[in-house]
Amino acid sequence: IKLDMSGVSIIGEREQGQDVRTSNITAVIGLANIVKTSLGPQGLDKMLVDSIGDVTITNDGATILSQLEVEHPAAKVLVELANLQDKEVGDGTTSVVILAAELLKRANNLVKNKIHPTTVMAGYRLALK
Question: Can you quote a single GO CC term (predicted)?
Answer without folding.
Answer: cytoplasm
